[in-house]
Design a protein that fits this description.
By secondary structure, this protein is α/β, with parallel strands linked by helices. The protein has 2 domains: 8-33 and 243-328, Aspartate Aminotransferase, domain 1 (Alpha-Beta Complex); 41-236, 3-Layer(aba) Sandwich (Aspartate Aminotransferase, domain 2), CATH 3.40.640. Helices cover 36% and strands 16% of the residues. It contains 12 helices and 13 strands. It has helices at 8-15, 54-62, 73-79, 97-105, 118-121, 143-154, 208-218, 225-236, 238-261, 281-289, 312-322, 325-328; strands at 23-24, 67-70, 88-91, 109-112, 127-131, 159-163, 184-189, 202-205, 268-270, 273-277, 293-294, 296-298, 303-307. The protein has a 7-stranded mixed β-sheet with strand order 2-8-7-6-5-3-4, with helices on both faces. Strands 9-10-13-12 form a 4-stranded antiparallel β-sheet, covered by helices on one side. It has a two-stranded parallel sheet with strand order 1-11. A hairpin with a 2-residue loop joins β9 and β10. α2 (54-62) runs parallel beside α8 (225-236) and α3 runs parallel beside α4. The longest helix has 24 residues, at 238-261. The chain starts with 7 loop residues before the first helix and ends with a helix.
């Protein structure tokens, strides 16, 4: 089982700190997500219906008509490897590990790709998977660069999969509004920017033939009626989206500044998280955990990801923890 952020119960047991006393910075999820209102009682009694408000809201938000609603982008990640013959699949390291795990489980040949050598390594790949911006490094690629790589892959029947889980708030870098093309697959999520990870709702944007094959694999009622109801309202709330994009960008800059001034210069990041490579990453992780602050540790790359504190008391708590003598000495 792969490690993920948000394992608060596990951390509470390990460090002997009550669950309610933790500050969770491990997920990269907006800590001040879209405010879900009180729900009508019938939300809990209805089966999902494909002709409700969700798809029109998604079409407008993503500026694309060719999309499929799925139970979080994780559902798409698990199904996509089943839809093509055995392939040579490239992915960065570090990156969201579920991508590589799903393709490897399906019997494909995995290849670790250097972010600075993608152009060269495309020659031996059938599929390239990129998270844009990358999780956890924050590496960001331009639209044109991605489209050029897609053209190369598509010319030999390959795929470019772009996971845009963290791209909300900077639509100028997203491919979602562009006309769909064969072999170009875009994954979107309402979990991160909207802070609605618990409703398990995401989208795949691609050609209809591929979406139909995915829908066949996923079966009916992939997303509950309640989740569809909430996601549709969130995707339609443009006023909240504009204010949140502005706020998250400022908070991302604030976190970068705090870490830098505390002696922990980030190596990358985006509006929702900052990423630090350090030889003592494990010790930093444990030191913060002993203060009841959970970060995301990446053992393979000896690095940490810090999500955003949710309020001023959380910012103060992180600031105080970073200034402790045992932290400064690491």
């Amino acid at each position: 089982m792969l490690e993920h952020g948000g394992r608060l119960r596990q951390a509470a047991r390990k460090y002997g700190i009550p669950l309610a006393d933790w500050l969770d910075l491990s997920t990269g999820i907006n800590p001040n997500g879209w405010p879900v209102p009180a729900l009508p009682a019938e939300c809990w009694q209805r089966l999902p219906e494909d002709d409700d408000e969700l798809l029109p809201a998604a079409h407008h938000y993503y500026q694309n008509e060719s999309l499929l609603a799925v139970a979080g982008s994780q559902a798409a990640i698990q199904v996509l490897p089943l839809l093509r013959p055995k392939s040579r699949v490239g992915i960065l390291n570090p990156a969201y590990a579920e991508h590589a795990a799903a393709w490897q489980k399906a019997g494909h040949q995995m290849m670790t790709v250097d972010a600075d050598k993608i152009e060269v390594e495309l020659a031996v790949l059938d599929v390239l998977i990129l998270i844009n911006p990358n999780n956890p490094t924050g590496k960001l690629w331009s639209r044109q660069q991605l489209l050029d790589w897609h053209q190369t892959l598509n010319g030999k029947g390959g795929w470019l999969i772009v996971d845009e889980a963290f791209i909300d708030g900077m639509p100028e870098h997203s491919l979602s509004s562009l006309p769909v093309q064969k072999g170009l697959i875009i994954l979107r999520s309402v979990g991160k920017f909207f802070g609605l990870a618990g409703i398990r709702c995401g989208f795949v944007i691609s050609e209809h033939k591929l979406l139909d094959a995915m829908a066949e694999r996923l079966g009916p009622w992939a997303i509950s009626h309640t989740s569809r109801y909430i996601a549709a309202m969130a995707l339609a709330d443009s006023k909240w989206q504009r204010a949140t994009a502005f706020s998250l960008n400022r908070q991302g800059q604030r976190l970068q500044k705090l870490l830098t001034e505390s002696g922990w210069q980030p190596n990358g990041g985006c509006a929702l998280f900052q990423w630090i490579e350090h030889t003592n990453a494990v010790n930093v992780y444990h030191a913060l955990a002993r203060h009841g602050i959970l970060t995301r540790l990446f053992n393979d790359s000896s690095s940490l990801r810090f999500g955003l504190p949710g309020d001023e008391s959380a910012w103060w708590r992180l600031t105080q923890a970073l200034s402790q003598p045992n932290m400064v000495a690491l």
